[in-house]
Amino acid sequence: MTATQRRIVLPLVAFILFLALWQIASWVFAIPVYLMPSPLEIVRGGARLGPALFSNTLETLTTILIGFALSCLVGIPLGVLVSVNRLTSEAIYPLIVFLNAIPIVAIAPILVVVFGTDMTARLIIVTLIAFFPIMVATATGILDTPEEMLDLARVAGASPLAEIITVRLPHAVTFIFGGLRIGVTVAVVGAVVAEFVNANKGLGFLVTSSTAQFAIPTAMACVVMLAIISVLLYEGINLLHRMVFPWSIRRVAGH
Amino acid sequence: MLAVPEMPNAALAATASAAEQKPLIELAHVGVTFQTKRGDPVVAVDDFNLTINKEEIFSLCGPSGCGKSTVVRMLAGLLKPTSGDIWIGGGARARGFSEVAIVFQRPTLLPWSSVINNVLYPVRVLRRVTAADRTRAMELLDLVGLADMAESMPNELSGGMQQRAAIARSLILDPKILLMDEPFGALDALTREDLQLDLLDIHASTRKTILLVTHSISEAVLLSDRVAVMSARPGRLQDLIDIDIAKPRSHETAAVPAFLDYSKRIRDDIFGPRAKREITR
Ligand SMILES: Nc1ncnc2c1ncn2[C@@H]1O[C@H](COP(=O)(O)OP(=O)(O)OP(=O)(O)O)[C@@H](O)[C@H]1O
Ligand SMILES: [Mg+2]
Q1: How many CB atoms lie within 10 A of CB B131?
Q2: Are residues B99 and B174 in contact, defined by beta-carbon separation less than 8 angstroms?
């Protein structure tokens, strides 16, 4: 078995074993469904939803993706702004830290009142929670640019803007992707929180509505779906990183 | 920066043989003081006078911390002198690497660009890259022996190859002045010797004006038309030496008696006081 195959097969085997143990445990100890549904019950709970499971997944995924895209559109330029210029940094950094300090769960109901129950409020919530790690990572990368590279750009006659575009941002790519990986997982959390407080569709909505009817397996099926989304998005970011910016992948031992 | 009408006396006296040559760079009474965080200012360079002529290889030697890099950074426009004047001739000031190009101690290639795009970087900063630029970049890569690595990424090159690419990059816009701050300092001895000869070849074919900072006395003598020795802090011009050894030079030049004399003179300039101290011990 090659190293690559092992990296895929080993966790898969472990995961299946884990599911099997869980299933056996719930049979042996006769754990009540409302306490902890077994894997098979969760699958049945999901099946009971039928195609609704997928349409609601799609709904949540849309919120996550648009919200995440907005987070990038806000986070990356802000990260550049707070790191390249002392004045902008001093002016807006405290404000941003304050924004980030607001507990999203607390402000979510208020946003719903202000913006109504359409997607706007949900997107704002996702963006508010996901832009921060992206911004911080971008700023860290911009500031990490080696002094010699900046000297090169300056002697070559680069304007401050050209310096950012040709040297600082490319150097920051590795850092930005670190931020995107965190950002995308946080965006999933943000979307669920948003759907908790305001939605009539989406996985977050299904979780609250199913638990209200004590349909724990159904709620768990939605949670599993969310976890799958989260993992897939995370790996998607990794894949994008590797495909578009192969030079920026740090060679880690064993990889 | 203001034009300085007369050449500084110290420089005049020692450039008798180069009298008919045209000065390209003049530093007159240049001083640099750094303001440190703790408050006490550091005088890095003091009353520094220097004239560098067109088409010569001029080396700057001296103990660590004497201000060699500071002088290079001033000429590169990265640092303004605290006092004094810097004058660069040769007609209208050009932009970026077409005026002054630089080679650092480390190659400083951009890891996200292929070798040829690194060579083209100084062009890309100023304007659109044309087909002619690409042709020229390929010629330069050929000149430094990297023609077949043009599409490689920098991390696929050895340290010496990367430094060659950096040299090709410095020549892409045909600069008036080439600044090299210990360009071979980070290389192994063999690569270093190789690149020294390459630099002599490049100079013979391009007639660039080169300011070379080096810690190696033999490198200074081998490559230079003139060598300036700087004293330790504050950096001042201590000695200015015409290297009157016929060209083309090679590593056999190192066996010429004059080579040894020049080396000894520079070594005495730098280590003079310490040699005496050791004798009295
Ligand atoms: N940004 C700075 N702030 C404060 N002091 C500085 C700064 N840059 C240089 N110096 C000081 O100025 C002096 C000259 O530095 P410089 O780098 O020019 O020396 P150098 O001759 O190039 O040394 P080396 O051979 O080790 O490269 C040093 O004493 C250094 O401590
Ligand atoms: Mg130095």
Answers
A1: 7
A2: no
Contact A147/B at CB under 8 A: no
Measured from the CB, is residue B39 less than 6 Å from ligand 1?
no
Could you tell me if B267 lies within 8 Å of chain A, comparing CB atoms? no
**CATH fold of the domain at A54-250:** MetI-like fold (1.10.3720)
**Among A57-71, A74-88, A110-124, which stretch is predicted with the lowest mean pLDDT?**
A110-124
pLDDT tens for B73-127 read 999 999 999 999 998 887 777 788 989 999 999 999 999 999 999 999 999 999 9
Rounded to the nearest angstrom, the minimum Cα separation between A106 and chain B is 43
Query: What 3-state class would DSSP assign to B112?
Result: coil
Domain boundaries, chain A: 54-250
Please give the span between the terminal C-alpha atoms of chain A, in angstroms, as a whole number. 15
Q: Which residues of chain B have pLDDT under 70?
A: 1-20, 273-281
Long-range contacts of A194-197 (CB under 8 A, 24+ apart): A194/A63, A194/A108, A194/A121, A194/A122, A194/A125, A194/A126, A195/A60, A195/A63, A195/A122, A196/A108, A197/A108, A197/A109, A197/A112
Report helix, strand or coil for B64.
coil
Counted residue by residue, chain A has a size of 255
* Model pLDDT, residue B273: 55
Contacts of B87 (CB under 8 A, 6+ apart): B1, B2, B3, B4, B25, B26, B27, B28
Cβ distance A156 to B121 less than 8 Å, yes or no, reads yes
